[in-house]
Amino acid sequence: MAPAVEAGAQSGAHPDRMDFAQWMPAIQQRVERALDARLPSVDLAPAKLHEAMRYAVLGGGKRVRPLLAFAAGELTGAPDATVERIAVAIEFIHAYSLVHDDLPCMDDDVLRRGRPTCHVRFDEATAMLAGDALQSEALAVVVDAPLAADPARNTGLLRMFALACGSRGMAGGQAIDLAAVGQSMTLPELERMHSLKTGALIRASIMMGAGCGDTYDENLDARLSRFADIVGLAFQVVDDILDVEASSSELGKTAGKDAMQNKPTFVSILGLDAAKARLRQLHREAREALAGLGERARRLSEIADFIILRKH
Amino acid sequence: MAPAVEAGAQSGAHPDRMDFAQWMPAIQQRVERALDARLPSVDLAPAKLHEAMRYAVLGGGKRVRPLLAFAAGELTGAPDATVERIAVAIEFIHAYSLVHDDLPCMDDDVLRRGRPTCHVRFDEATAMLAGDALQSEALAVVVDAPLAADPARNTGLLRMFALACGSRGMAGGQAIDLAAVGQSMTLPELERMHSLKTGALIRASIMMGAGCGDTYDENLDARLSRFADIVGLAFQVVDDILDVEASSSELGKTAGKDAMQNKPTFVSILGLDAAKARLRQLHREAREALAGLGERARRLSEIADFIILRKH
User: pLDDT of A34-43, one tens digit each?
Assistant: First the structure.
């Protein structure tokens, strides 16, 4: 990433300051190319496994986590190539989690990103192995070169990544989610579950995207950490609202699934109106967390808007 | 690890030169403690997931890969603490692969290490997530501190680890194995499959155990690489012979499974006598590969004997 422009300087002229409406597809296309380049070719054996891995990752997805990583990288002048590797690794982890989550022994879902889920398109064993291999591939991408020149910083970033994926991160959140089917949950319990299941990886996208830049510091850490928690939570509240209000074709995945599976959601606990009010509050809090970081935080603010105001 | 004793010096007196019969359980106990310490406590949420992870890893297993890593570390004066982290990470990967391999959509097995398999003891979803989280935990262990002071060497070792786990390593071997059920295979195809499914991780144990030591060099690389390939292959030939000759109670897992599932094995392709002859040949080749490395390679030679002559 080019050095971040200081607040107020050159706004509009600098290439990093392109409109969000142009920036977002540019980053998405860049990430799509990088994902494609990092995935093993179907020309390599085992071809079916590689085909399943590519199917699970490519051709869909809003790439929210990569967008967050690139936006956070702008805060600290993070090198483009490093942010790209972080984005690819996190997207591999996200894709593997969806593949495993959709399996019959988990959510048993048939539709994802408007297409048959991986185990429907291939078979259960291949889907499971494709998920497994995507997690290994994420590791390969993230360790392919240091994420920061300073060894201690590099170790810290890699630890953050591992923790976000594991039993005290995403996988732990999935286990809590699984145990929650048909159970009642309090709002704090629900928030805790989502802070792991989706929050951990969203948080890692932001903290690692910023953390690999040279100007990262402790002061930024507290603000950004707060922003990451809020955005992670807001992301899930939106998901729960859309699960009620949007159609399967709009979502590209099975709508109304939570209610069908009797899963606790923000809507089932708070009601639809209160869930929407909570979302507006989180939106304000997200903006407040970024206040004082100046123009270099504009992209993060824009992505928060995008995540919170999205319709699918 | 204490500096490796040069060929011929102090043999018998140095603590590293304890008898294999004492050394093996000492390393196994050390690894058992380290595995226990690195696994999340069941006091942490989600408790059931952590219980399943601990069940999958602890209380069984010959710890062949950790033994190989420690023995290889003796070649290069590798630091004990680093070899231990490598051993733990690889054993986490091995344990997760067994959990996923035993699932109904894969081998559908109910007995492992003399106990019910993880999905039988818990449930399928928990077993799958426990495997997923063990892979993340392996990553956490391996990145917890640099594996080598030199950043390029460290990156090389981490890459080696990631590659051994993924679609061009263990997970890829599992996919080929899966596709092979009921199919005929040539001997080279079978060897290729096992070089990935079990060979890749055995190879990583040896190459990483030695590679994190200060005196590692290119000359060692070629000999050790050849030794690793031979031992990986021999390990599988023994497995195939035992699957025919040993009982389930001796093995702690379902005996005769390969024939039952109509899987190609060294015994089914070569016949029992020729498989045993091939094993004797591999044993000779393993010793030849270590020749010229002197006394510091004695442990590796002893483990090769142990792996090849084992009865369960």
Answer: 999 999 999 9
Q: How far is B139 from chain A (nearest CA, A)?
A: 6
Q: Provide the residue count of chain B.
A: 312
Prediction ipTM score:
0.92
Per the model's pLDDT, the better-predicted residue between B1 and B29 turns out to be B29
Contacts of B274 by beta carbon, 8 Å cutoff, 6+ apart = none
Among candidates B124, B151, B176 on the partner chain, residue whose Cβ is nearest the Cβ of A46: B176
How close B165 gets to chain A, by Cα (Å)? 6
CB pairs under 8 A between A and B: 153
Q: Which residues on B lie below 8 Å from A126 (Cβ)?
A: 175, 178
**Measured distance CA(A160)–CA(A167) in Å, rounded:** 13
Q: Look over chain B and give the mean of its residue pLDDT values, rounded to a whole number.
A: 91
Q: Sign of the C-alpha dihedral, residues B55, B81, B210, A139?
A: positive
Rounded to whole angstroms, what are the CA distances from B176 to A76, B132, B228, B265?
Answer: 44, 20, 21, 13
> What is the dotted CATH code of the domain comprising B16-309?
1.10.600.10
Q: Does residue B206 surpass a pLDDT of 70?
A: yes
CB A81 within 8 A of CB A90: no
Cis peptide before B264 (omega within 30 of 0): no
CATH code for residues A17-309:
1.10.600.10
Strands B111-112 and A111-112, by their bridges, are unpaired
CA distance A98 to A95: 5
Tens digit of each residue's pLDDT (9 = 90 or more) over A164-191: 999 999 999 999 998 888 888 999 999 9
Report domain extents, chain A: 17-309
pLDDT over threshold 60, residue B14: no
Contact assignment for B136 to A48 by CB distance below 8 Å: no
Q: A83-97 in b/e burial notation, b at 16+ Cβ within 10 A? A: bbbbbbbbbbbbbbb
